[in-house]
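Subgroup meeting minutes
Present: P.N., E.W., G.H.
Scribe: E.W.

1. P.N. recapped why we're keeping a running log of single-chain structure predictions: easier to compare across weeks, and new members can see raw inputs and outputs side by side.
2. G.H. added today's entry (618 aa).
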Amino acid sequence: MWRSIVAVLALVASASAVSPIAVLSQADQTRLGSVFSSGLASADVASIHYSAAGLGLLGASISDSQGACARVKKNVNAQSAESVFHAVSAAKALGNCKVDVANADSVLSISEGSDSVPIFYAVAARKALGLPVDAAAVAKNLVSVVQASKVSIASHGYALLAASLLGKSAELKPIVETIEDVVNYADEYGGNVLQFLHYDQNGLPITAAIVNGMYALSSGSPAGVKSDQVIMLANYFLRSRHTASAADAYHVLSSLKTIAGGKQSPLTMSLIGSSSVSASKPVVKVRATDLLDQAVKDVTAMLVTAGQQDEEELVADAKLQAGANGEYSIDLSGKNAPRGAYSFKFSASSSNKQYIELEEFSVDINFVGQVKLSAAKFLILDADQDVKAKSVDLTFPKTSTDKLSADQHQRLSLSFNVQSADGDAAALHQMFVQMTHRATGQEIFFIAEADDDRYKCEVNLGTSAKESFNSNSGDYDMTLIAGDGLVTEAISWKFGAIALSFPGTPASGKSKLQYGPRPQIQHMFRQPEKRPSSVISNAFTLAVLSPILVLVASWIRVGVNLNNFGKAGVNGIAFLAGLTGIMLIYAYFWLGSNMFTTLKWLSVVAVPTFVFGNRLLA
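Output recorded in log:
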């Protein structure tokens, strides 16, 4: 009943279209090749196996194969079926490498009731060594594994993988029929990923075993597995493509290669070149490929929509122009779209029914353009009042030749408009006024902020004379710097120069902004207090011990009657021994132990002391 519910939920989940989240690009495959090359130098037999096999999947050559073969022979554990499996598999992938395993037939024996994981290792190793495999007995064992009432997903996955090594037979039919149920047990993540997890284990080996096993058993077309589930399984491996582990890299590559070669192969799309479009570069290019970045022929690529949220669509249902090597493009000349970020949604389908239609590939494209400055005005005003001492109208991009001067009693004001190429007002993210001292090269920056429809930058020379200018009088060049991610070219406009006069002299010494190592901080810990002299310490010790001396002297004077002590027996002796132990623990604590150690030993001694004391007084 509950399996049916899981299947229904999976069907509902797959009703909404999913798309591949990425593609295993050539750059990704090159990086995986580097991971395999590093793993090949390892002393770990499993790492050498996965690295050599991974390089084989990439079609790359294996350097120092004899050195890797020697490390396999040296480090193989001939008493472990798993180690033998990795060793013989590594030898096969390396080529010209032979691993001799003593008592291989015994080590790789398959007993009735074995779990599917050791069965897989044994069957794969026996086949690699040319040892006989009782296919009927193994199939019977695997069927009992998958039909058990409490079978783990890991055992089920390796049962599929082991069964795929036995060839086609009627005995394997019960295993093949479980494929649909197994896929429905997968954990969904984020609405576009399916993965198989077993407790706290890494999900990659288990998911890879299930995918490779079910595709091999089904000749590339697992029955009951829907196209959306295929894409979501592929997304799990694509999400893990940045791994640095040779084993995980092999599982990613082998599984994606299996899915890409199946009869339901996801069609993917990726952006080529820049994600920015301008009037001079109006073409957007994409590439239609399979999961392994191989171009797919006979593809119809469409730009479904292009636009901004809550705005009219810029383009809709436009067919892309086909190019070479799976490339497709669309020319957006004449669209005159305002600067901004636009969401482009593409789709692709192939006449080859092997490929699953790509219903949506979304990418953000920035429309960039030029901007210009207009109505720029530079003012020198009184510091406290809006009395103009000088007003200069500026023309972008020319530099004003007016000779300007100001002192600490005045303030400077620059205001201007920013316009796009079509004359509309434009907003930019970064606006600065840079003032550079000609003699020293000192640079001071002030932010220009939006003020209604204009940008404005004001500098009070009185308040910033010391803090910003360091009271450094002289000639300053004034430059306006403006930039934005949606601007084809940033603006750096030297609009004039000014002579500034400040009272006082510049502070000497290095600038506060120093790049490099700081002076090392020497931590000063509290100095221990001076200990008293040994005379005082010894006198205090004697004073502390004096009550014991008084006690002993008093016993001697009044007489001590120990005649009845023997009647106390074991209880009395044990009680006094416990009290003595407690006193010794306190002494040890006083001499240098810590509280936690003291409490631990007290808990050990105090309990028997209490018990024997209670019996003594009873």
